[in-house]
Design brief:
Layout (H helix, E strand, L loop, with lengths): L3 E6 L2 E6 L2 H11 L3 H10 L4 H15 L1 E4 L2 E4 L2 H12 L6 H16 L7 H6 L15
Antiparallel strand pairs: 1-2, 2-3, 3-4
Helix pairs in contact: 1-3, 2-5, 3-4, 3-5
Length: about 140
């Protein structure tokens, strides 16, 4: 069982993971526990700032991505840039953002079980495609 998930996001494919340090930061910013946050996302009562913080912390905890075939290291600065560029409305709809956040939290809370042999051998989940909407000028 994996506690991370690789997803297409913005300009590449990124690993999203919420280890303890990221959960603590998320809980502090949201003012509540990670399970309460999970239920708020599920019932539609989570604040936009919380949704964006989950993506940011997931990117920081995941630590890496692949852009144009090149492996990259994700740090706080890059995570902030990715969130502001690809996750904040209007670059992403609230529905798209909620799907992304749900996948990140589910991997953290319930785990991610690889579904095919290639995933089981590599230990990495199959990438789910997610396209960010382009902002109109």
């Amino acid at each position: 069982m994996n506690a991370f998930i690789d997803l297409s996001f913005g300009d590449g494919e990124y690993t999203f993971k919420l280890p303890a340090r990221q959960i603590f930061a998320l809980e502090e910013k949201a003012g509540t526990g990670v399970l309460a946050i999970y239920y708020q996302v599920a019932d539609g009562t989570a604040k936009l700032a919380t949704l964006l913080e989950i993506v940011r912390q997931g990117l920081i905890g995941g630590e890496h991505g692949v852009v144009n075939g090149e492996a990259i290291k994700v740090n706080h600065h890059l995570a902030n840039h990715l969130v502001s560029t690809y996750a904040e409305p209007p670059a992403s709809t609230i529905q798209e953002l909620t799907k992304l956040v749900t996948a990140i939290l589910a991997a953290c809370i319930t785990g991610y079980e690889p579904t095919n042999e290639a995933e089981k051998k590599s230990g990495k989940p199959k990438t789910r495609k997610r396209k960010a909407a382009k902002a109109s000028a």
